[in-house]
Amino acid sequence: MKSKVSVSFMMLGVLFCTCLVASNLLETKVVRLWQMPGGHILSVTAGLLVFPISYIINDCIAEVWGYRKARLIIWLGFAMNFLVIILSRVAVMLPAAPFWEGEEAFNFVFGLAPRIAAASLLAFLVGSFLNAYVMSRMKIRSAGRNFSARAILSTLVGESADSLLFFPIAFGGIIPADELLKMIAVQALLKTLYEILILPVTIRVVHYIKRVDETDTYDEGISYNVWKIKEL
């Protein structure tokens, strides 16, 4: 396997990290999705707009370059997310100029509570690694066939794990339990639907990168240990 990365890999890595940072900021807003009969409201976080893109990129990287490259990108995304959270906390703690009127709004968006930050980082790691693992193992078992099915199933597994971890940790005791369960189910299903709708684009991107990079990795005999970051 190539020890150096290509321009395609670098670009996907940059986009992956950008989507993760943006989704963390957008998670601070809860959006009304649909009002059901009887007044019940289905809600999602605004991070739904961009977070599924990170899973699509994860699928592309695992499909083309394999689990080891996906592992590198996942940890890089974690590090960038953690860095932004730390810098945001420092910015919130700095004293505001007396004439500036935007402190309350700034602190609401960037002053991510430690509980929410921890929930976001943990859920991201577990969901992303499950997504990459399922994608990798299914590719070997199917001998590279059925990319669409592999992409959808791996996303469903990863997104479900992400939602199951994030919402109870971040909002347990704040949002009613029945509302939390609805948000978990709706988010996981909508993110998977997102993957299905954009699948034709994903397939074309994967085929293009495989042709340009002349790479199509099968993870035979590799270690799935999430800590072996240096193994590329």
Describe the SSE topology.
Layout: H1 7-26, E1 30-35, E2 41-45, H2 51-64, H3 67-93, H4 103-110, H5 114-141, H6 147-171, H7 177-197, H8 199-213
Antiparallel strand pairs: 1-2
Helix pairs in contact: 1-2, 1-3, 2-3, 2-5, 2-6, 2-7, 2-8, 3-4, 3-5, 5-6, 6-7
Structure explained in plain terms:
The protein has helices at 7-26, 51-64, 67-93, 103-110, 114-141, 147-171, 177-197, 199-213; strands at residues 30-35, 41-45. It is mainly alpha-helical. The protein has one domain (5-229): Arp2/3 complex 21 kDa subunit ARPC3 (Orthogonal Bundle). The protein has a two-stranded antiparallel sheet with strand order 1-2. Helix 1 (7-26) runs antiparallel to helix 2 and helix 3 runs antiparallel to helix 4. The longest helix is centred in the middle third of the chain and has 28 residues, at 114-141.
